[in-house]
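quick one: guanine bound model?
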Amino acid sequence: MKFELKAKDTQSKARAGTVTTDHGVIETPIFMPVGTVGTVKGVHQRELKDDINPDIILGNTYHLYLRPQTHIIEKAGGLHKFMNWDRNILTDSGGYQVYSLSANRKIKEEGVKFKSHIDGSYHTFTPENVMEIQRSIGADIIMAFDECTPYPCDYNYAKRSMHMTHRWLDRCINHLEKTSLKYDYNQAFFPIIQGSTYKDLRKQSAEYIANAGAVGNAIGGLSVGEPAEEMYAMTEVVTEILPEDKPRYLMGVGTPINILENIALGIDMFDCVMPTRNARNGMLFTAQGTINIKNKKWEADFSPVDDMGITFVDTEYTKAYLRHLFTVNELLGKQIATIHNLGFYLWLVREARKHILAGDFRTWKDQMVKQMDNRL
Ligand code: GUN
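yep, here:
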């Protein structure tokens, strides 16, 4: 994997770059649509490619390990082939899902024993077996196994957990060195910074992670319920320490405003379920603010879904029709809203990139943040 920094904003810490892997070039800043179980919910791969056009999507080790199970993905020749997606994929390690989804779990130095949220069966994730599973899934970028602490989190717990995440990182790296690629393309490995909302811990963790010398670095444990200001403060602490010549991935973030603010702090990569999950509940993100399409006020509004027309659904359907689809609970409503939201998120990061390259990112960002704060 290769990262090239193309431009740095002079009035913020925003950067524009490219990440190149064997599955192509990723222009950064990038938003990665979440495809948890081998599908970006509600969108065909063809629409994803032609209409939304992300250079990379995300998959989840936790979910794919439980279903369809690692051996099936391996038999298919890896996740790219299994799901018919020939661009980049990143897999999260399960270090978040195991805490947020499994019925109960026991965290020990060795690893995490958890109960499946699907059938109640017991499983164990260790840094070693999570590396093996991610080798079998075959994403282009794979993540370290970590513990994502909740918010709020007691200082001593956060500190102990951060040190365990660091020891787990060493085990991930040692184990990766012993395993080989399962397919004919490379895999890049990203370690994850933890440390809850404590500046001194974040600083320590960023130093430890930077020292690992990986080709890219990630920030975890944020967007777990803390106020946005605390999230930004933590991003600021760690981007000061992380090497400039490696991509920085802020995991699980966030709203369109969170994304722009974190780009301004030097983040290059994002993922979040928000555009897809909220779409299925009738929430649309636009440059003018958010819309609850289920609201009665749209009942007879025959204007386009979004007159900016980023994707075809924006101009081919009206707000009144989309509201009707939600009222009668038709699948097409969720599909239209998902395509709209993902189209908007990808437009937003591409536009951010353009403004970084043009040198007027800061002014554009401040204006967008103001506009997007509206509820329409
Ligand atoms: N997704 C969102 N936050 C996190 C985190 O802290 N760790 C991992 N592995 N994934 C995440």
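The pocket of guanine is lined by residues 92-93, 95-96, 143, 146, 148, 192, 220-221, 251-252 (CB under 6 Å).
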